[in-house]
Amino acid sequence: MSEHCPCTRNLTIREKSLSMLIRICQFNTMAGQESDINNEVSFVDTLVKQLHTELKLDVQIRESGDFESFCVKLNYDLNLQFLFDSARTQEILTTSNVYELRLTKSNNCTLTNDIWTQIKTYFENEIKQSQVTIYDLIQRLQDKILLLATAARIKPNKSKKSLSQQQEAAAETKFRDTISIFNRISWDKSIDPKTVTIGYLDRFKGIQEIAFSEWKKVLDHEYGVPMHRVRYYKINNQIVWDRTRKYDILTGSETIQTTMGNDSEQRSLEVSNNIITHEGVYKYDIETKQWMICSIETSLKPMNENDRDDIIPSESLLPDRCHFLTWNILFDYHHKTKIYSSERYRHILNILKSLLPDIVCLQEVTYEFLELLLSEAWLKNENYHVVIMKNIILSQNLKYKEQNYYGQILLSKNIRPYSVHFLPLLTNEEQEEKTTTMKTTKEIILARFGLKSSTNNIIDIINLHLHSNRSKNADNKRCNSLKHLISNMQNLSDNLLLMGDFNFGDNDMKEQDFLHNQMFNDLWKDVYDLEENPGYTFDPSHNLCAKITSDTMINRRVDRYLLQSKLNYDIEHLNMIGLETYIVNSQDDISLNPSDHYGLQCVLHLKGRKITPKSSIVIIPPYHTWSQIQSIREVYDPSYTRWPPHINLIYPFYEEYDERLLFELRLLLTKQEPFEIDLNEIDDFKENNIAYIKLTDESKKLVQNMYEQLKQLYPQCCKKMNKQNNGKYTPHMTVAQFKQNNTQTNNKKMDKPVLVLNDPIHFLVNSIYVIRRTDDTPFHIEYQMPLGSVLERLNYSQLNCDISLRDFFNSENLYENEISYNMKLEKFQHLNDCFKQIFSNMTLERYTSDYYTYGSFRLGLNGADLDTVFVLRECDFYDRTKETDFDRMIASDESKLNILNILEQQIQIMNDVIECRHIQALYSLIAVLFKDNTRVEIFVDIKEKLMLNNQLVKNNGLMYFEDPVHGVHDAEQLLSYIRCPYIFQYLLTFIRQWSQSVGLYGHVYGYLSGYSYAVLTAIVCHEYFDENYHCIQSLSDLENFTLDQFFDLVRYFFDYYSKFNWSHESVRIYPKRKAYYHRDTTVNNNDVKFKGAMRILHPLPPFMNTARGTTKITRDLIVEGFKNVSNYMEKNVSNESNMSILKNILHMKKQFPHTKCSDGSILQLKLTACSSLELGEWIGWVKSRLTRFINDCIDECHLYVQTENEFNLSKNESDVDASFVATYLFAFAETCENISQNRVFSHCLNNFLDQFKLYPSRTSTMKSSHKLISLHEWKMENEQPKSQRIRTK
After folding, report:
1. Counting Cβ atoms within 10 Å, is residue 843 exposed (0-12), middle (13-18) or buried (19+)?
2. Average pLDDT over residues 189-208
3. DSSP string for residues in 534-599
4. Averaged pLDDT, 933-956
5. MJ1316 RNA cyclic group end recognition domain spans which residues (predicted)?
6. How many percent of the chain have pLDDT more than 90?
7. Residues in contact with 271: Cβ distance below 8 Å, sequence separation at least 6, in sequence order
8. pLDDT tens per residue, range 357-372
9. What is the pLDDT of residue 760?
10. Cβ 1230 vs Cβ 1200: under 8 Å
């Protein structure tokens, strides 16, 4: 302080406040006569002065990130709040240049709800006007409030303090912000500005100091510094204000003191040397690189449906889809030398890092773990708030550590808790005094959040840890704790989520009965049957840590989620984590689980699905049958323009369709094969005067059977449907609705015409439809969902598109031959019967078997081979005494190899099989060649019960949602997404044919696989047929899909992906979930290497990259291919017919070698074998080694290499022993001489060739050779007569 200041220190707080107001007034009246520093006073300062002096209102201004928060306290305890830009303080504040302008009321407000509503309406109307100044708005509001309150004879709250009293109280507690101190120094004549120094944070240099007179604000100079970077002020080299330490001797407000929880002791909110010293909510400050305590609401007040005026800020709102995790991580107070806590903690942190849940509740946390947690980079970078209990902080003290102190913490990602409370977990007081060894009572963490999906709704999340059985009268303590907790919580929130370690199992009836009476939803029971999956989170029979810590060795479900809510909710996912063991002592080879408890993770949709009459699942007859149906409906059905001809299956249905809902529907339909139905006469419902076309009895049974399956999937929709139909489902097609004449109630048929169906209607049901409408538009088709496990073969006779498109595909031979398709189907059925003979109920007790197709055949497309998967699943329950030799063989370590050998032996004895081989390529499979040249590949997939035990499992062969069958669920996820499966078939067939023609097909060569192209096609079909782009108004839009429309769809495909940012973006289905699997392209993290230069993600967890074999070179070639087609279509669309353009696209030539390799060289690899199947096996092994060699050439040798997308097969008649030859080419931009001199390349090439020798099934007839030649030499050789070509894959 300067020597002019002592008199200021002797003033009382009240005198200082009044003195400050007088000086502000004096300053503003003399603005034109003062120095340039005085010109710093802004319109904001003027507004504050006016509100203080003219309207007698209190104003609070606080920093809020890059903005300033402005709050005016109006009469009757109303508050006007907004944010303004501190860099634009020279502008008059109006309703158009402030942000988040809102009017709220406090709990002390004495206005009635009716008056409050009138004031809010008046406020909303006022702010709609343009350029209303904030001062005028406040003045009008004050007048309106006074007018309404006086008319209703409402008096202000008597407890309200006068202005001077409020200023005195605020001065005692308020810590002045940066701008307030700056303004104080500017106008205080007792302070010499030349003696003042400002310390601020430079992002690159750290803390810097500058003279006060040299300071430039953002508004004044292009290189000005934002005020929120100021860290301290000095006068005569003495710090008088410090933001970090909350230190202020300039205005008299010392370090802030606060009371937190129920602790009566006053404590300063500080983090000394980044050591956590007090309980509270902490957040990492990137600028100071410290964990800073946050200012959080600590008053616990009711907030239910009757009290919704305290608006939750957006930063405290939970997302609609929220990822929770709770885990008891096991302290180290017992068995310390056996449980290796340091090593376990590291694995726990790695698991948390991999999952990054939104809300994490941890129990048995000590200060040792807290220090490790707070040092984690992911916790800081992912913007987590950390709620820390005082017992954890005390556990670092030796005195409390000897008493085994520990506690809970709560983490929230990108969500700031609206309020946090540390509440005692009370038990019976007498028992507490006798049995508790700890000097403090156990506590819970209660964190309050808002809900994005429900306006003004909140949820209280409680992290608790009840007493264990090591305490005396543990069951009574737990019951009393729950009683005390719930009795206090019931009046606080409508939504309550309890999560943590409850320390009792399902056989502890006292606690179970209590919870049952409280109407809590146990989320584990919502998902699982306890008899099938008991959910033991404390499992000494399997958990190695629990074996050490358990006294009784009893398995129990002690960790839970309990939800009490008036909201609808959906559980997307609920399972246990921490089941794996990790090495904690490599020297003694000791492995442990991360904790003696398994963690529980849950993905919860807090926004329940809304059921609406604007959505339905229906059967729609083919368009050619509509004529006689619509001729009746047009006259007699008022809903003629709103509904298409249909048979309702589910009505009403959900308003929104997410991926899970549609995927479940598609999986259900795989078990329902297409069926035929007949409608033969018109009947009526006498009770509601509706005439309908009646189904035959057989058809009625088929439709009712489908309804019963859908009912299991959508019970809530069916309940509403049955209420409307007297609890009965009758499949029918409505054609007329009549109004009943009130004077003819005794004769309801009197005014009804006689309706007759001239011809019976017969059609095949191969799809059902999800339809939707709006208030202004009729029903349109959102999704066409096909029936059956295999999509109908794409063929000319289909009526799924216009004949012009079918003629084009037929002329280009894009349809699969019917004979070829039937041969594949026959072979699949033949193999299926063969496998059922081996693996049946007679030979298996522990396992069941299934056999599926996948790949092109499942999608109804033409493929070279038939891809299949043989699945063995372990049963949940089986009689161990009846376990067979097959069961024990499958359960052995060599299970997959054993199964492959059995299948191979059984297939070889089939009459129509030429050859059967076990191939070890990218993965183990069996390749079968039949006499008619049909090739079948069989993959073996074994599903152990341990993998399925903790997942959502349906009683349907395909409904293993989180543990999908190889290849099968990939196809089904696409079919549930594409909206129009048959148009998808046409587009994908076209794209695949083009990519093969131009040499951009094949993932083993570094290009895109068939499934990658399928994902790209699915996304285009989904977006193209969106209701806002090309809405499917009617079934006729699908059945009459023309060649010109197909041309537009193809053009959309190539335009979309030629402009896509492949370098930084990922392509994936359901992009709304991208936030949970976010790829941060702004951070250059060399430790993270994404596989594949293009990222086209699987639609199912773990969302692997289907294009992981692509390199930067092949990515550029593929994008160049997309652009070539897009440019060609744009250039010729006005000159050529659409059919001609599409044909030319299919006949574009492969550019191999590329022009970049025009002066380069060719590496030619030649493989030989004695049969086509042996050669296929030999090629399969080499393919599995190609990717590594290609990447080495690019990354290690720094060569430009282009790969061909196929092996060229031929037959050498002159060599009997090795008559089948395969040739593969690599094109390089460098010359032969340069490549030959590249030692790194020679090393990589030798490593690649050495891999051929490692093939375990290699025979003497499997040979290989290679040569490096110039491009000119290769072209000369290519002009020579070629050997006879054979069928290629």
Report:
1. middle
2. 82
3. ---SB-TTT-HHHHHH-SS---B--EEEEEE-SS--EEEEEEEE--S-EEEETTTTEEE-SSSS-E
4. 61
5. 176-243
6. 37
7. 277, 282, 290, 291, 292, 293
8. 999 999 999 999 999 9
9. 93
10. yes
Cβ(915)–Cβ(931) under 8 Å? no
- Cβ atoms of 689 and 748 within 8 Å: the answer is yes
Identify whether the C-beta of residue 804 lies closer than 8 Å to the C-beta of residue 1042: yes
Tell whether the torsion through CA atoms of 1005, 1011, 1015 and 1016 is positive or negative: positive
Contact status, residue 496 vs residue 566, Cβ threshold 8 Å: no
Higher pLDDT, 644 or 490: 644
What stretch of H or E contains 1020? helix 1010-1024
Backbone Cα Rg of the chain? 37
* CB 948, CB 990: distance < 8 Å: no
Q: To which residue do tokens 């709704």 refer?
A: 457
Report the candidate in 694, 697, 706, 689 with the shortest Cα–Cα distance to residue 753: 689
pLDDT at 17: 38
CB 702, CB 677: distance < 8 Å:
yes
Specify the residue for token string 């104080």. 184
Max distance between CA atoms of the chain, in angstroms, equals 114
Report which of 352, 360, 358 is spatially closest to residue 321, judged by C-alpha positions.
358
User: What pLDDT digit, counting tens, does each position of 625-660 carry?
Assistant: 999 999 999 999 999 999 999 999 999 998 888 777
Tell me the C-alpha distance between 337 and 332, whole Å: 9
23 CB-side CA count, 13 A:
16
Evaluate whether 103 touches 80 at the Cβ level (below 8 Å). yes
DSSP state letters, 421-469: EEEE----HHHHHHH--SSS--EEEEEEEEETTSTT-EEEEEEEEPPPT
Q: For residue 926, what are the β-bridge partners?
A: 918, 938
Give the pairing type, strands 384-388 and 407-413: antiparallel
Integer distance in angstroms from the first to the last C-alpha of the chain?
Answer: 87
Separation between Cα atoms, residue 233 and residue 200, nearest integer Å? 9
Instruction: State both tokens at 1287.
Output: 């069928």
Burial class (CB in 10 A: 0-12, 13-18, 19+), 445: buried
pTM of the model: 0.61
